[in-house]
Amino acid sequence: MKTKTKILGKLFGLTLIMLFSTEAGFSQRKQKIAVTGIDSKDLSIDKEVIRNIVLLELEKTNVYEVMDRYDLSNIIKKEGIQVEDCYGMNCQVMAGKLLNADKMLTGSVERYGGKIIVIFRLIDVKGEKIEKTDVMEFINQQDQIQTMMRLSINNIVGIENDKLLVDLLVNYDQPIITSKTTVKLSGPRVGATHYWGRHANRLQAPLAQGGFDMYAVNSVIGYQFEQQFLSSGDFQALLEFIPAITGMESGVVVPSVSTLLGFRFNKSGFEIGLGPVIRLTKTAYGYYDGNGNWQLANTLPYDSNIQTFKGLDSRGKLDVSSGMIFALGKTFRSGYLNVPVNVYYSPNKDGSMIGLMVGFNVAKIPKFDSK
Length: 371
Known about the structure:
Layout: H1 2-28, E1 32-34, E2 39-41, H2 47-61, E3 65-66, H3 69-79, H4 89-99, E4 103-112, E5 115-124, E6 129-139, H5 145-157, H6 163-169, E7 187-195, H7 198-204, E8 217-232, E9 235-246, E10 254-265, E11 270-288, E12 294-296, E13 309-312, E14 317-334, E15 337-346, E16 353-359, E17 361-362
Parallel strand pairs: 1-3, 1-4, 2-4
Antiparallel strand pairs: 4-5, 5-6, 7-8, 7-16, 8-9, 9-10, 10-11, 11-12, 11-13, 11-14, 14-15, 15-16, 15-17
Helix pairs in contact: 2-5
């Protein structure tokens, strides 16, 4: 009796093992997925090529049992499935049942402006529902279409993408640029500049002494051109190009060109900038004597050890000098009128300068298409 009980126990145990093994086998079976077609618009790549790329990338994930495209073609012909316009859920569910598939993958790849939009939908055939949808916007670089398909399919099947590839190909939306997020202040500028130190002395010295006979404070007239290269909400980064002339009230024209890197905060109207300035002036080699007076180099005796250097002199030749400008400003606004006010400083070892410039600008009124 005990022997029979042991035999029955072993048979029951073997039966349980077989049942569990069979259940585990069923649970580990990959679900079958089919791709009958991917819609495409305004691309240089054919629909069939895109479908084959999707099949290839889906096979690489090793998540589903992907139905072979040749087997698909035979079944489609045999069952008379119309796949040309079969992209909706109901049509895909019907096709999935005829194909005996667990899942269906459908979607579209469309060029829209400067981007490529990829939409994939994973459909559960038995549940007759859309299980998952993924939408990605890529830059319009069609030679990378296979990589785009790979990224979108990874999202559908739950595989993490390479962040570098995503950053290289995904089309990130640029901040919306409106009159509230950007201010363009190109326009005329007028102001005044004050020099001090040796530089100021040379400008104010009489012509007979090689000076320019200018006032201590000189007018500045110019025009600012600017180009924004970054806009993020309240913040702007831009390049400013300002040609100007100085000293006209003294009968002298000193041309200059400034190129500044500017940072502007639109809501408060404050901005800062810095960059090089190039001026065109007359210079000559000379030295300062014991009384601090400027003398030309040719007045020195041959055996003198005094070092000469290039300085401002109206008797010299036209020369290019360079420096740096640091600016701080605020824009006052009234309707579409912008009034920028800037204070700037340019350091120099022979004498620095400080100045004030005011401008005006009328913002362009947005135009709306009435059609």
